[in-house]
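Ticket reopened. Same input as before:
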Amino acid sequence: MNSYNITSLIKKKRDKQALEADEIAYLIRQYRRDAVPDYQMSAFLMAAYLNGMNDEEASVLTREMLHSGKVMDLSDVPGIKVDKHSTGGVGDKTSLILAPIVAACGVPVPMISGRGLGHTGGTLDKLESIPGFNVNLDLDRYVEVLRKHNLVLVGQTDEIAPADKRMYALRDVTATVESIPLIAGSIMSKKLAEGIDALVLDVKFGSGAFMKTREEALELAGRLVGIAEEFGKKTIAYLTSMEQPLGCHIGNWLEVEESIGCLNGNGPEDLMSLSHQLAGTMIYLGGKAESIEEGVERSRQAVQDGSAIRKLRDIVLEQDGSADYIDRPDDYPKAATSFQVHAGSEGYVTAMDTYRIGMAALELGAGRTSKEDEIDPHAGIILKKKIGDPVKEGETIAVCFTNNEVTTDKVHLMLQDAITINDVWKQAPELITDVVTREGVTNWTR
Amino acid sequence: MNSYNITSLIKKKRDKQALEADEIAYLIRQYRRDAVPDYQMSAFLMAAYLNGMNDEEASVLTREMLHSGKVMDLSDVPGIKVDKHSTGGVGDKTSLILAPIVAACGVPVPMISGRGLGHTGGTLDKLESIPGFNVNLDLDRYVEVLRKHNLVLVGQTDEIAPADKRMYALRDVTATVESIPLIAGSIMSKKLAEGIDALVLDVKFGSGAFMKTREEALELAGRLVGIAEEFGKKTIAYLTSMEQPLGCHIGNWLEVEESIGCLNGNGPEDLMSLSHQLAGTMIYLGGKAESIEEGVERSRQAVQDGSAIRKLRDIVLEQDGSADYIDRPDDYPKAATSFQVHAGSEGYVTAMDTYRIGMAALELGAGRTSKEDEIDPHAGIILKKKIGDPVKEGETIAVCFTNNEVTTDKVHLMLQDAITINDVWKQAPELITDVVTREGVTNWTR
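Engineering reply: fixed in the latest deploy. New output:
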C-alpha cells in the first residue's frame, strides 16, 4: 500500500476534493495504528462534515472500519441471516417485537445492538431491564445461541469495528456526528460485522429523530442502501415519521412491557403495524415468504399462534434472564414515584414535540446524558393520548415514573409544553412515507 | 467568566455562526490550560478555516493569544517604537536593511523575528549566519539593547504568545494554516507583544508568497490593519508583488551580504526602493518625519551618510556577532560547491516561478523542510537576471551555492524550469500595488 502525507489528505478534503480509495484506506489504517493522532483525524472529520464524502469514499470508510475488527462468519448457521437497524427514535422498541417474530418464522436474526444516548433509548438498555439478561456473550456463544434459537441479542464488543468505536467517540466531542456519510459508514460497519446476509432499515425523521427532515432521511437511506448493496447485502429501507413517539411507553422496562403486550396481541396500532411491516420484510428477505405482504401475514400469525412470545421467553432464558416478568409483567417492581400530567384544556392532541418528550424521559432517569451515567430501568412515561385523540380538560394525558423525585415539577412542565392541544382535529401523521431499495425510492401510499 | 460546552462552541462555528467574544476567550483560555484537548481545537480550527471568522472574533482571538504570554512594556524607552512585519517571500531581506536605517534615524525598532519554514526564509536564520550573533536575549536585555541602540533583533521566546505557538504547530499538521483570520491573529498577537506603538506591514502576494492573489492579500491586509488599530497601534500596510524574488540574493548569508551592499549604497533597485519606502513609513510613524515622503528622504540620507551601516555594525557587536564580515563580506567562507545555470535560448526573462526558486534554495540547504532541520548559512542562489532583462543563449542566469552536492542536478533543472525566457520583452511587475490604512485602500500608481 502507498503511503501518504496525512496533512495533504486533510488539505484535499478541506479543498472539497474527493480522496482516492487508497487514501481513505491509508488514513483509517494509520489511525487504527495510532500513527494518525486524534487531532488530525478530528480536522479531517470536520472537513468531511462540511465538504461531504462521495459514495466511494463512504464505502471505503465502511470497509476499513469493518475490517478494523472481527467480522463474524455465520456460514455454518443455516438460513439467510437478516437483521434490522433503526436510526433511533423516542419509544422505538420494534427490535424487541420483531426479533422474536422473525426468528419464530425461521429466519435467523443475529442482532448486535447499542445503548441509548441523548433523547433516544437503546435496545441493550431495554434488554438489561429484564433481571439477569446477559448481553455480553463472547463470539463463540453468539454463534451457538443463534444456531439454537435463530436469535441472539447482544451488545457491541470491542472486537466489532473498533476503529468506528474510537472515531465515534471523537465525533461525539468534536461536533461531527450529524454527517450523513459518516453516520452511514458507522452504522454499516457495525451491521456488516454481524455476519448478516440481508438488512432492513428503519430511517426515522422528525423532531424525535436524528434526521430532522424527510430529505435528510432520504439521503441517509440512499447512502445506507448503496453501501449495503456494494457489500452484497440485499437491503430495504423504510422512512418513518418520528413526529410523535412510537407506541405509548417510553423508558426501558416500560418498553419491554409494551413489547410483551404486542407479542401477546395487545399493542397500539402504530407500533404493531410498523413492527409487522419491518418483520414481514425481514421474513421476505430471509426467504420465508414470497413477498413482503406474505411476510407481514406470517408475522401476524406468529403473534397469533404464540410462537413469537415463546421465542422471546426462550431467548431470555438462554441469555440468563428471568422469564417471570415476561410471563407476568405486572409483577415487575414499580418506580418509587409516579405522577400524572393532565390536559389543560379540551380539544384534540395535534402535535407532540417528540424530542422534548425524549428529554423528559431522560430527566426521569430513563436515559443517560453522558456515557458514564447509570440508567434507571423503572423510569419513563406512559402516554395516554397521541396525535388525533380527543381530550377533556383535566384528563390524564401521560403518567410518569421515576426514582428521582426532584425532577417531577420540571418534567411536568416539559410534558405539558411538549403536547399541544387544539380545538381543530388533526390526523396522526402517516408512519411510513417512503421505501428505498437499490432500485430507487417509492412513495408509500396506502 | 462564563463557562461553555466546548462541543457546542465547535458546533456553532461548524454551523456558520459567529462566536461571542466571551466564547472565543473561553475556548482559548481553556486550551492554554490543557482543558481543551488538541482534537477539539483542531476541529474548531477546521470549522473556522472553512466558515471564516468575523472581525470581532479575530480580534478576541488575537487578544487572548497576546495575553497568553508576556507583553513587553517599553514605556521606559523614549520615542515611538515602530516595527515592520512581512508575510514572507523569496529573497525578502528588507528587515536587515530597514531596521538599522530606521534606528539610525532615531526611531526605536524592537524587532522580534521568526525562522524560515518552507520556501521562504526567516530573519533569525539570516542573522545567525553572522558568526556569534545571538538572537536569544532575555527580556531585560531586550529592553537594555533597544534603549542603547534604538534597535534590538531577537527571536520569539516561549514567553511571547505561547497559545499562538501551540496553535500554529497544530494548524501546521491539520491543514488549517492558510486562513486569513487565523493568520492575522497569529501575526498580530506576536507583534503586539513586542511593545510597539506603530507598525508597517508588507503583505506579499504572488507565486512566491503565502497569499497567491492580490484579493487575498488585500483581505489579509485589511484584517491586520483592523486588529492593529483596535489595539491602538497606528498601522500602514503595503501590498507588494512576489512574482519574482526580491533583490538578487536568496539564502541566509547571501541575503546578509546583499543587505550590507544595500546599506553601503550598492543594492538592486527593487530591493532598495521597497526598503526605503517601508523605512520611510516607519520613520514617519515614529514621528521623525512630517510625511512618508520625508521619511523616505531621511532613509536615503541614512544610507548615504553611513549612519545606517554603522548601526548594523553596532548591533552586531552588541549582540555578540563578529563585525569582520560586515566590514569585509567577501572574506566570508564559501560553500564547497558552486555551479551556474545558463540560458537555454536568447530572449528576455518574462516570468519567474518564485515558489520553485524558493524550493530550489531550500534543496541547496538554505531552508528547512521540517522544524528540526539544520540550515546551511552558505547555501543559496544569486540571480543574474530578473524579469525584463535580455539574455543571450548560454549566458549565466543564476549561480548556486551548496554543501550538498547530490542536489545539483535537481536544482539545475528546477531553476531552468522556473525561469521563463521568451522572444517578447515583458516589463517587471509593479512592486507596490496598494496601500491599506484605517481609512481604506489606495491604489499605488506612480
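The domain at 82-328+431-443 of chain A is CATH 3.40.1030.10 (Pyrimidine Nucleoside Phosphorylase; Chain A, domain 2). The interface with chain B takes residues 6-8, 10-11, 14, 37-43, 45-47, 49-51, 170, 172-176 of chain A (CB under 8 Å). Please confirm and we'll close it.
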